[in-house]
Design goal:
four-stranded antiparallel sheet, about 190 residues, Jelly Rolls, alpha+beta
Amino acid sequence: MSEQLRKHFEEIVPLTDEEFDGIYSFFKYKKLKKHQYLIQENEQVMHIYFVLKGLLKASFIDNEGKEHIVQFAMENWWISDFNSFYNEVPSSMTIDCLEEVELVYVSRENLEKICAENQKIEHFFRIKNSFGYVALQQRILSLLTTNAKDRFERFSVQYPQLLQRISKTIIASYLGVSRETLSRISSKV
């Protein structure tokens, strides 16, 4: 477990054994079954999670009861309701497990301690947050400016491993199209 997280950190910043051991001491381990919730709407989110194994989805239910999938998280990805985590407000999203999941997680308070004590980790999270922000902007622009076929093709290229792990109904929801539209598009690709 710890080796996977260390390798992830070291994709951006080198760490000594002592540095990593100090950082890792703030993390806790959690295991959830398929269909369990990691976060439910209106909860106060106190942690961010690093996925060791499995697959999760973050979604929002609108006033008409329609689910809108905001993101997925698989191995070596971070997930949380970041608005709730950083701004200390109730969550607006639900995060549930699409597969059995193993995670390590850290509290906001401990993340602040880690970043205050170790500039490398502060740099790591700044870079990760920047990458996440760019990806989010690209996703919004794609939803606003491309057709369903182009969105599916982009998804297929960016996340080929997810095509095998997620149902077409869930992929359709993520892309903002009906299941029937996705079936029509994917049969032509």
